[in-house]
């Protein structure tokens, strides 16, 4: 079996922490990475603060195969993700020639000036490579194992698609589930026994509350289909025993 | 002006990191705390892993006034938040007599057995106080400055309401906004100048992309209404200059 490939996500922005904007990027990235066989192991959300960004990038980039960030790469004074990532790597943050060229060409086609503020969007840590932005052109960038993306969901998703083919995926994690008409409390004991028996799989149970009843979805995840199927068979037998 | 009251949120659960469940608790807590004048400064999401939970709790509880967790307090084998928090505090994790009594009384009224799995939900670090759960009875708990809540959004929200009156709120952060019909690139320069002039306020700008045009919402936040109004007036003058 191949080595697990791991990842962390870092969401940057006061607007998420104030609740003004509800994050949609964590769930999207989680699903995207899982589908590629990459284990998302940790997420952090930090404010638009240089040291907070740099400290989080350094904590995460040494611990996981990949780091993905979203937010803080626009043209305004509070967009300081590039500076924070540069600080984490001990690199200067400067205008990237290729990014400047992309943006200059883009704005030449519009009636908008290529202002100093817009030129901010071409800043990256020295040596970064660019991540294409099909939506609004201003690129993201990659430095080391850190991928820096926009916060606007459609743009972030476009960048994720650009990054995808460059990532080394792990063995895909298979997931199968069974709906169980009773609450977790009824199945917790036997389910723990099944988890012990099938230790190569990860068995989770997720309560669903519809305002009146609590039911449970039982999910078995694993990298080997035969192992997942064996665990699922034991879960099915347990559920049948409860409801039969 | 009173001292800012700060908070961190810790979301616990493999189901969030796999993308199977989309978190709704971060946005809810962010808005709830902001409305109380409490600054949410950081969020982390970690897996159902004892050391990851304990390390995150310890990193956050020493840094912020309050920590709020969601997830991992149900009756199954992978619900180990109480153990992780106990480990962080160096305390034993044991059945809380009051929680046992609440659950025993609850299940006596149902046709469900008070199984060993359900008794797991009464476990807390020694010395914890309980947080009421109006939805499904199994309580959350508070130990030190750490508040441990359920992951199911309706239950988490009920616990947040139970906790609310016990929290010391800071000065409320006021927020006013202006919609600006042009992109951030046009306003980035002058907005940076306005931020410098009104350094007591936090000025954010948030792009909105409707699939065709990018517009901007400019938000001014601060603890003093006169300061917020003064900054808003300068932003309004800037926007009027652009569109007039």
UniProtKB/TrEMBL annotation, chains A, B:
- Pfam families linked: FLAD1_M, MoCF_biosynth
Instruction: Tell me where in this chain the MoaB/Mog domain is found.
Output: 8-170
Ranges that cross the membrane: none
Matching CDD domains: cinA
Q: What name goes with this protein?
A: Competence/damage-inducible protein A
Q: What is the source species?
A: Pseudahrensia aquimaris
